[in-house]
Amino acid sequence: MRQHGIRAQQRELTRQALLREGRRLFSDRGYGAVGLADVVQAAGVTKGALYHHFAGKADLFRAVLEELQQEVGRRVAAAADAHDDPWTRLTAGCQEFLTATTEPEVQRVMLVDGPAVLGWSRWRAMDEAASARHLADALSSLVDAGIIAPQPVQPLVHLLSGAMNEAALWLESSSDPEDLEHTRAALGRLLQALRIG
């Protein structure tokens, strides 16, 4: 029984090494410039070990993307949860999303290569699973509290999510360090327009 536990732990360590090195390589070079040989060499494992955990390069990339989306989601939730006021929770969460997505590895893996590698529909489904539910909950709370006018929440979720993703992509190509602050200010004004009174 103990031997089984040790093997399971070794398998998990191998999986984590593959994810860590895949993430580093995909974010540094981009998906197209990374081969499986690069990943297994960096992780210090065999191709057989990689295929034990992942169906191939795209599957490893999907796992790396999912891990990044979850991390960004946790950052957004932590920023929102630091506040009691529901309006501040929404604005803090949205602003943290924008800030988190300016990190180069997040931009390249999550926003640039993600849709290209997985296809728009699959990428969008993963994006919704990772963050849209939280945004929908926050907006629903604000509608229920009368802070935002009564309306269907899903259109707002998609509009805000799309706007923030597009802003993050634009920031990825920007060379002006002030653009993040300008974009954060614009997002604040956009959100404020939703508020009643």
From TrEMBL:
<protein>
    <submittedName>
        <fullName>TetR family transcriptional regulator</fullName>
    </submittedName>
</protein>
<dbReference type="InterPro" id="IPR009057">
    <property type="entry name" value="Homeodomain-like_sf"/>
</dbReference>
<dbReference type="Pfam" id="PF00440">
    <property type="entry name" value="TetR_N"/>
</dbReference>
<dbReference type="InterPro" id="IPR049484">
    <property type="entry name" value="Rv0078-like_C"/>
</dbReference>
<dbReference type="Pfam" id="PF21351">
    <property type="entry name" value="TetR_C_41"/>
</dbReference>
<dbReference type="InterPro" id="IPR001647">
    <property type="entry name" value="HTH_TetR"/>
</dbReference>
<dbReference type="GO" id="GO:0000976">
    <property type="term" value="F:transcription cis-regulatory region binding"/>
</dbReference>
<feature type="DNA-binding region" description="H-T-H motif">
    <location>
        <begin position="35"/>
        <end position="54"/>
    </location>
</feature>
<dbReference type="InterPro" id="IPR050109">
    <property type="entry name" value="HTH-type_TetR-like_transc_reg"/>
</dbReference>
<feature type="domain" description="HTH tetR-type">
    <location>
        <begin position="12"/>
        <end position="72"/>
    </location>
</feature>
<keyword id="KW-0805">Transcription regulation</keyword>
<keyword id="KW-0238">DNA-binding</keyword>
<keyword id="KW-0804">Transcription</keyword>
<dbReference type="GO" id="GO:0003700">
    <property type="term" value="F:DNA-binding transcription factor activity"/>
</dbReference>
